[in-house]
Amino acid sequence: MKILFTLKISKEWQMKQQEAYPNDLFFYEKEITNFKQLNEMDCIVTFGGDITPDIINRATQLKWIMVFSAGVDGLPRKEIMGRNILISNVRGIHAIPMAEFIMSYLLHDVKQLQHFYEAQKNKEWEFSHPVVELGNKKIIVAGAGAIGSQIGKFAKVFGMQTIGLNTTGHPVEGFDQTFAMNDLAEIITDADYFVSVLPKTKATTGIYDMNFFQSLPKNAVFINIGRGNAVEKAVLERVIAEKTIRHLYLDVYPDEPLATESPIWEATNVTMTPHVSGHTDQYIRRSMEIWLDSLAKFKNEQPVQNEINLNRGY
User: Fold this and answer.
1) Locate the D-isomer specific 2-hydroxyacid dehydrogenase catalytic domain: which residues (predicted)?
2) In Å, what is the CA distance from 236 to each residue of 202, 209, 270, 297?
3) What is the pTM of this model?
4) HSE on the CB side for 190, CA within 13 Å?
5) Segment 247-253 mean pLDDT
6) Which residue did the predictor score with more confidence, 191 or 313?
7) DSSP character at residue 299
């Protein structure tokens, strides 16, 4: 096989995979548009953003695209499906870092760390300011896959009530109960925390409308680490401006990077991070483990890990 990496991996990983597959040719080229042997490649390993319709058309021997990311919504779907090219990703590697991010948000909230940080800057001894516990608080997680399940497991360590939402309502480890997404409106009325880990698809675009936010308890907290398309810009800004719920923790936004003129930057009821909840120092290691396992399966004509159905978008 001829395999092109358009992302950077260490010399150590390059040597490991070459030793494991001595008969295969591995190429490393960051600028894929300049790669002269593109038409000879059987497989491209990429973060996904450099795969365009032109690249698909030029890569005439391409059989497989391995995406070192969970999101595949930017891939040229029409051209890929027309050629029946296999797409797989590294879904699952984000579970621990993103679940840790959720726990950091939750603890930041109940332990009132922002309040105490402001008090420190003002040299105020806020001894009487109330803090509470996560125990017995209800957390609802929309998107009960690998990431959602890990969030549920971590939340249960803190004694939280855990509710998961997925397409069918089938049971998932980490959740006391699971429901189908169609039951969303019926189960959110007593949520303390609502977490969205939904991918970007046609079905998830604008799924959280004003009616959704108005159905949440006034004291609820909304957290989005999935994709920003789940809340339309106008709805998000209205919820923030009208203080429909108590607080929002946002790692993703309808438009990224967030425009400097956006009112979200200065909103006191929003805690922001710049789409970094999936970042980790273990990213390449976990991705390479999935890749090498999938490569072995591909060669043996077995199903690879995390094959993507582009009709669904995940």
Assistant:
1) 33-309
2) 18, 9, 11, 44
3) 0.87
4) 7
5) 98
6) 191
7) H
In the numeric block, which tokens belong to residue 116? Answer: 């105490």
pLDDT at 314: 65
Three-state DSSP at 132 gives coil
| DSSP-assigned letter for residue 258 | P
Q: Residues of CATH 3.40.50.720 domain(s) within the chain? A: 2-93+282-299, 95-272
pLDDT-derived band at 312, boundaries 50, 70, 90:
confident
Place of tokens 């425009």: 259
Both tokens of 168, joined, read: 């069918």
Share of the chain above pLDDT 90, in %: 95
Of the candidates 197, 166, 164, 165, which has an alpha carbon nearest to the alpha carbon of residue 70? 197
Question: Which numeric CATH code is attached to 95-272?
Answer: 3.40.50.720
Alpha-helix residue ranges (DSSP H) falling in 127-267:
146-157, 184-187, 210-215, 233-242
The two three-digit tokens of residue 196, written as one number: 């969205």
Peptide bond into 257 cis (omega under 30): yes
- Which CATH code for domain 2-93+282-299? 3.40.50.720
pLDDT for the residue numbered 313: 67
Q: Which residue stretches of 173-274 are H helix?
A: 184-187, 210-215, 233-242
